[in-house]
Amino acid sequence: MSEGPRYVPALRYRALTALYDPVVRLTSREGAFKRRLLEIAELKAEDRVLDLGCGTGTLAIAAGQAQPGAEVTGLDGDPEVLARARRKASSAGAQVDFDEGLSTDLPYDDGRFDVVLSTLFFHHLEPASKRATAAEIARVLRPGGRLLVADWGPPQDALMRIAFLAVRSLDGFELTRENADGALPSIFADAGLQGAEQVDQLRTATGTMAFFVATAPRPE
Length: 220
Hints:
- The strands form 2 sheets. Strands 5-4-3-6-7-9-8 form a 7-stranded mixed sheet, with helices on both faces. It has a two-stranded antiparallel sheet with strand order 1-2.
- The longest helix has 14 residues.
- It is α/β, with parallel strands linked by helices and 220 residues long.
- α6 packs antiparallel against α7.
- α5 links the parallel β6 and β7.
- It has one domain: Rossmann fold (3-Layer(aba) Sandwich), CATH 3.40.50.150.
C-alpha cells in the first residue's frame, strides 16, 4: 500500500503479511463490503477498471469475475502482496493484471480508466498523500469516470467508535483521523472530482465501513 515515497506493508508489518487475508475476513466483513462496493459500481463489459491499493487482489479478482468483459488492473506498492495476488488470480482463473507502483505517482496515462476502486487503503495514507492520491485518481479517470471507495468512515454510534479504536491504534491515530472525521468526500472534491459523497455504511467488528463515490468532471 503506497504512502508518499514508500509503501506500507499489509497490516503495517511485513511479518504479518501472511495473516492479511484471514484477518481482514474476520474483522471487516470483507465479503459483504466488497460485494456491496461492486453492487454500487455496476461494472460494464467495456469498463477499464483500476483497483488502487489492491493488496492480495481479492477485490480485483471479484471485479473480473463479476464482469468478465471488463479490463481489470490491480496496483499496489508491495511486491510481496502482488505475488500473492497473482497466485490467487491464477488459481481463480481470473483475467487480472497486477502492477507495482505508488498511488501518489500512478504509472498510467491521463484518462486511462473508466472506474477506480479502492478498499481499506486511504486510511493508511498520511494527509498529504491522501490528497496527492486523490489528484492522481482524478488524472487517470476519463471524463465522467467514477471513483468508488470502501474504507473506514465516521463511527455511526458509540459502539462503532470504540470498535474503531483497534484499527486506529494499529494504523495510527493521525493517519485515520480524516477517516474518522468524515473528510474523504472533501478530499475527493478538492482534487476536482464531482458529486463526492458517502452513499452507504456497514457495521463491522472494527468500526463503520463507509462507501464513497465521486465522478471525474466532463468538459463544459
